[in-house]
Amino acid sequence: MTLPFRPRMTAARQGISVIGKGHRRSWHGVLAEVWEAEGTVGAGGEYISQDPRLFILLDRAGGGFDLRLAPDRAPEQMAHAARQISFIPAGVPLWTRFDDATYIRHLDLHFDMEALRQRLGEEFSLQHFNTPRLMFSDPRMLNLAGLIADECAAPKAFHELYGDSLTTALLIDFLRLEGRTQRKRSPLASWQLRRVVDYIEANCLRRIRLQELAGMVDLSESHFSHAFKASTGMAPHQWQINERIKKVQGLLLRADMSLTDVAVAAGFFDQAHLTRVFRRIVGETPAAWRRDRRQH
Question: For residues 214 and 221, what is the distance between their CA atoms, to the nearest angstrom?
Fold first, then answer.
């Protein structure tokens, strides 16, 4: 069994108060953490991680908030942007400073470099992870970061493939920003596609990790995700959701199962969760779908 990735980070803060206990979720080689904090006038901190990370400011209220690579260095141009992204390589100190009383909510993504090699395959290059880049903005990356933060805050992970796909997509977008040209991916070979879709169909009621599927066809997670979408027109996690809904439809045809029973059997949190997902995929609620089938 693979041990969970544990980032190695030290922090020294003054005048900064962390709100709550934060939210965490771990995927293959990535630990995602969502934190809220408040800083007083002149507050600051120093942070050093032995693993590379992305610091993504999701929300800010109040005065100015800066990130610096040296305590006496001038702030970046986008220091006061409400939403921004920073990449900090392993072992590089980072300083923060609050010019005024400020609230922030941020997402930290810590990366295990060996796992990144496996996830990205031929996309991986050390040069992309050696240069700091502070306070830049990219709409797509920020959108993905928001979805990852929502997944962290959810009471329970529903699809491992979903989190794996989000973090992989964000990593690929980061590499694109670093100047790597993405090649058009070929689809999976017919035997690869059949093996994967059969596996998803047989296991769709449990969590499936992107790492599992990529390993079945001996591809990196990044390559596999692109090739699967080129073959099917959708991401692996969406394919699993669709397969799960097909199983749900079969259960709904059984007269001996209530909607709550169906939700539990299909691995949903509760009936309300089942209803939301079912309506999004099918276009009507499970109750309406069952009622319509019983009338015919």
Answer: 5
**185, part of any domain:** no
276 is written with which tokens?
A: 């939301």
Q: How far apart are CA 31 and CA 54, in angstroms?
A: 11
The CATH number of the domain holding residue 279 is 1.10.10.60
| Orientation of helix 271-282 relative to helix 286-294, angle to 10° | 70
What are residue 53's DSSP bridge partners?
88, 110
Residue 5, classed as helix, strand or coil, is coil
How many whole angstroms from its chain centre is CA 271? Answer: 25
In terms of domains, do 94 and 159 share one?
yes
> Residue 184 domain-assigned?
no
Cα(196)–Cα(237) distance, integer angstroms: 12
Q: What is the pLDDT of residues 176-231, one digit of tens each?
A: 776 544 455 688 999 999 999 999 999 998 888 888 999 999 988 888 988 898 88
Measured between alpha carbons, how far is 167 from 17 in angstroms, rounded to an integer?
A: 28
The amino acid sitting at 90 is A
Verify that 205 and 171 share a domain, yes or no: no
pTM (predicted TM-score): 0.66
